[in-house]
Amino acid sequence: MSAGVPTWRAPVIGCFLAFMTVPVAATALFSFATRWDRTLWPEGFTLAWWAKVTSRSAFTDTLLNSFWVAAVSVLVSLAIVVPAAYLAHTRLPRAKPWLELFSIVPFSLPGVVLALGLIRLYSKLPLPLVNTPNILIAAYVIVALPFMYRAVMTTLESVDTRTLIEAAQSLGAGPIQIFGWVIVPNIAVGIVNGSLLVFSAVFAEFVLANLLIGTRLKTFPIYLVEFTRSDARQASALALMSFVIAWVISLAILWTAARPRKPQRGGGHG
């Protein structure tokens, strides 16, 4: 049996790699092609499409807008999810099933339904949310909740929180000191992984950005979609940039997860 394994393993892996890499390679070739509609291969290569699409002021503006919205969404997610996950894990175990449920709900809500619901809800509140970037950030925090929560909670469950809390209390630390100086450093891997996942999800999101604020705060995905209707080669260049950013973030997540953890001292589990 073992001798026959390589006969099917190589084709399966090869098909998977081709399925993942051929579309990206074709997009990259098309973004450099002078023309690619009459023959099997591009008729020539040029940097003109890249120069055109990056020379526009809208390119820099939309890229910075996406980075800004993604960064703020990460910070808000951290401020909400990390303390909530810590309290549920250490002091309110009965709340964990509810948090698990709430962390799954965003996956079941289509972007259009979520956008309309947020507009109806926040339009009745005396807060500057509708038609502003604030409502987009609020929506992104909801959408990104599963990514941040699962990364943080998984790390919390692998840490001996009870021993850490008891040791800190024996040294006279208060609840805020325990959380900020003891727990947070020990779950830094989960915080970093969750932040990277949220950042990558928000940076590439189009539906909510288009429905909630549209051109009032044009993000990089909106800028990309606009070019798909006018110039596919420039759109391919933007798509490749977006892929590279997501690829770098994925490598950062893998590198963070692969870092060896220092063994903990202590016995019981929190």
Question: Into which percent range does the helicity of residues fall?
Answer: over 70%
Strand content: under 5%
Question: How many H/I helical runs?
Answer: 12
Cα(first) to Cα(last) distance is 45 Å
Average pLDDT works out at 84
Could you characterize the architecture of this molecule?
The structure is a single chain. The chain has 270 residues and is mainly alpha-helical. It contains 12 helices and no strands. It is globular. Helix content is 74%, strand content 0%.
What distinguishing features does this structure have?
270 residues; mainly alpha; 12 helices; globular
What does the secondary structure layout of this molecule look like, with pairings?
Blueprint: H1 5-32, H2 48-55, H3 57-90, H4 96-108, H5 111-122, H6 133-157, H7 161-170, H8 175-186, H9 188-203, H10 207-212, H11 220-228, H12 232-258
Helix pairs in contact: 1-12, 2-12, 3-6, 3-9, 3-11, 4-6, 6-9, 7-8, 9-12, 11-12
